[in-house]
Amino acid sequence: MTVAEELPETPEIAQEEPVKQRKNGLYPGVSDELAENMKSGWADTELHDLQPIAQAAETRARRAALSARFPGERLVIPAGNLRTRSNDTDYAFRASVEYAYLTGNQTEDGVLVLEPVTAADGTSGHRATIYLLPRSNRENGEFWLSGQGELWVGRRHSLAEAEQLHGIPAADVRELPEKLREATGPVRVVRGHDAGIEAALTDKVTAERDEELRVFLSEMRLVKDAFEIGELQKAVDSTVRGFEDVVKVLDQAEATSERYIEGTFFLRARVEGNDVGYGSICAAGPHACTLHWVRNDGPVRSGDLLLLDAGVETHTYYTADVTRTLPVSGTYSEIQQKIYDAVYEAQEAGIAAVKPGAKYRDFHDAAQRVLAGKLVEWGLVEGPVERVLELGLQRRWTLHGTGHMLGMDVHDCAAARTETYVDGTLEPGMVLTVEPGLYFQADDLTVPEEYRGIGVRIEDDILVTQDGSRNLSAALPRRSDEVVAWMASLKASVKG
Ligand code: GLY
Ligand code: MN
Ligand code: MN
């Protein structure tokens, strides 16, 4: 009998999803002596007097706003679970944005629960508890024989440490399903992250009420607080450095493929942040016309444009989303520059339309108007511009919306209602991208040959301020002459 088989009864959550036991082909058996030996001889590493995380005050304020919206109801917000990538290896874990936003914690299997409480003065509120997996048990061998054992996955915070860090009472998540099954009163859960938790609530929740919770949490994130704006600026600053890295290695990319660009940017993202916020689009030549080109396996040729759409995600999950369309050689050809400058003009018009009180749609309309005008001027579509816009004829070449909210998701606040987002009004603290583009497919016979295979997008991250807007990505040149000068100095810095 192995020690693994002697593990005590697994708690509820583990019964539904059995804890993986490490199978080691080289050492299949564990003697009783070894099992006994592994129980002891370990130092006490409990950490005391931990400082709260940087956003502890903000997460408390966010929980308070959530509490006020759903008085008297139990709210369950799971982080989610690891997902298998292959056999016994998992994808890198990323906690649900709802959970991370409300706790600042990012641990797999974690769950935030807000229990309704009534204070002595009769006011109703909630008591928050963060449910987490505690430190691994050494007595039953879990810490070295279980797939979730700390010896395999790394040290976890104890529940007491988690309380200090997050300012939220912590409890053992393995006890939560039973508690939820026994709970009475109205309850809502954020769906789609933790099937085990949802199963425990299955006869207590409805899809409609759960959706209201998800929508509220998405709309809460439309206006960013000061911590979030700081994180977005950090994400953008790292992204700017990542773009500089790429320009410096364009020679190596020419000698290999777009993958060299992807890898170069990824290095910056992993060293300075958590990850890239989305698959980097490293699109050279005609690949720029494929909007989500993430295969990145094509050649990089001097004379072509490189459309690089990439963003670093910070350790707290805030991502930049920036695009520059760069001439691989360092200078734009005449036709490339003509198209680039048109997109720049459209972006300028779009950015100018971002201000508090403006309709969300205004910046899109402003950019589309400029692009439609250029297409008419170039004889690619019959005017007048008003007709083109009314029929949407410019969209053959503009293809996508001119931007979106930005935050913990690259396309942030996606569950927000139309009336609060797309049909809504801009407010200070919102952060959005402005990213017009023109794309002439390589096989588009309706345009002269010189246009074909050219795709240009320029994308910046814009904060709505009290009196207008601030371009968080202004450090990265946009105007074509500034891009050329910037590339020249970076290329020279490598040679020199
Ligand atoms: N990177 C995807 C987008 O710009 O929306
Ligand atoms: Mn974008
Ligand atoms: Mn983008």
From TrEMBL:
Which intervals hold domain Aminopeptidase P N-terminal?
Answer: 54-198
Organism, per UniProt?
Answer: Streptomyces caeni
Family assignment?
A: Belongs to the peptidase M24B family.
Q: Supply the source organism's classification.
A: Bacteria, Bacillati, Actinomycetota, Actinomycetes, Kitasatosporales
Q: Which reaction(s) are listed as its catalytic activity?
A: Release of any N-terminal amino acid, including proline, that is linked to proline, even from a dipeptide or tripeptide
| EC numbers for this chain | 3.4.11.9
Q: Which cofactors are named for this entry?
A: Mn(2+)
Report the InterPro entries cross-referenced here: Aminopep_P_N, Creatin/AminoP/Spt16_N, Creatinase/aminopeptidase-like, Pept_M24, Peptidase_M24B_aminopep-P_CS, X-Pro_dipept-like
Q: Give the record's keywords alphabetically.
A: Aminopeptidase, Hydrolase, Manganese, Metal-binding, Protease
Name this polypeptide is given: Xaa-Pro aminopeptidase
